[in-house]
Design goal:
Elements lengths: L1 H9 L2 H54 L7 E2 L19 E6 L7 H14 L8 E3 L5 E3 L17 E6 L10 H17 L7 E3 H5 L5 H5 L1 H18 L6
Parallel strand pairs: 1-4, 2-5, 2-6, 3-5
Antiparallel strand pairs: 3-4
Helix pairs in contact: 2-4, 4-7
């Protein structure tokens, strides 16, 4: 009788309802748990998508703004020698350094020939990758895959540009300046650099070079603006 009474109590409608309620609550909790897991997974996937999309967008913008047509360049490479073209590999370009020739009235080829003549005169060690003349002509002296003796401690990771000047102020004339902007932006695109990666010789050693753009900081800042504006206007759309 005790067992029969016990079974009736355990199987009473109220106890069955209680078990059913607990079962429903358990199933409801399991369902909510699965929903939360799915929401977490969806959130993570959304984050991954946003990061990927953002990265792709950055790559697109960089490609859009940094692929420029190569300017006209007169390639007049120096002879390989220990005073101006040592032939040492430049493994990675992290910056572009702007210089001035400090000898008013001279041409790009005259400065190129001076660099080349150092192999015989042994006067000093000096050179540059490019020289821009008073008429805007661009002469290349050293391949961008090699170092130049131009920027001291930054020789190993920069490309150098020398600019000819008309007078002792050191200011670049319009033709020289326009070619400097065109060449610099082209090199920025080639080596995936920004305007902040373009520096003066002064920024490396404190030397008064390029003179006008050390003495006139506002002109140098305007040059940076002109680089960005040039890229904005003339950059080609190339989707990666």
């Amino acid at each position: 009788m005790q067992n029969s009474s016990y079974n009736r109590r355990t199987n009473s409608p109220s106890r069955r309802n209680s078990r059913n309620q607990r079962g429903r609550r358990s199933k409801k909790m399991q369902k909510m748990f699965r929903i939360r897991i799915m929401m977490c997974v969806a959130f993570v996937m959304l984050l991954i998508l946003l990061v990927y999309t953002g990265t792709s967008l950055v790559r697109y913008v960089k490609a859009e703004k940094k692929n420029l047509t190569e300017p006209e360049i007169d390639v007049e490479l120096l002879d390989i020698n220990e005073y101006s073209r040592p032939g040492i590999a430049l493994d990675q370009v992290n910056g572009i350094v702007v210089h001035y020739t400090a000898n008013p009235g001279t041409t790009a080829m005259q400065n190129r020939n001076y660099f080349n003549g150092l192999k015989d005169s042994h006067e000093t060690k000096a050179s540059a990758h490019f020289i821009i003349g008073l008429d805007g002509e661009i002469v290349q002296c050293i391949p961008t895959a090699e170092i130049a003796y131009a920027s001291n401690d930054r020789n190993a990771d920069t490309v150098s540009i020398e600019c000819c000047i008309e007078d002792d102020t050191g200011e670049f004339n319009e033709a020289t300046y326009d070619s400097l902007v065109e060449l610099t932006t082209y090199l920025m695109g080639k080596f995936d650099l920004d305007s902040e990666d373009v520096i003066r010789h002064y920024d490396v050693t404190g030397k008064l070079c390029p003179k006008y753009y050390v003495e006139h900081e506002d002109a140098w800042e305007q040059f940076k603006v002109d680089l960005d504006d040039y890229i904005e206007e003339y950059g080609e759309k190339v989707v990666e």
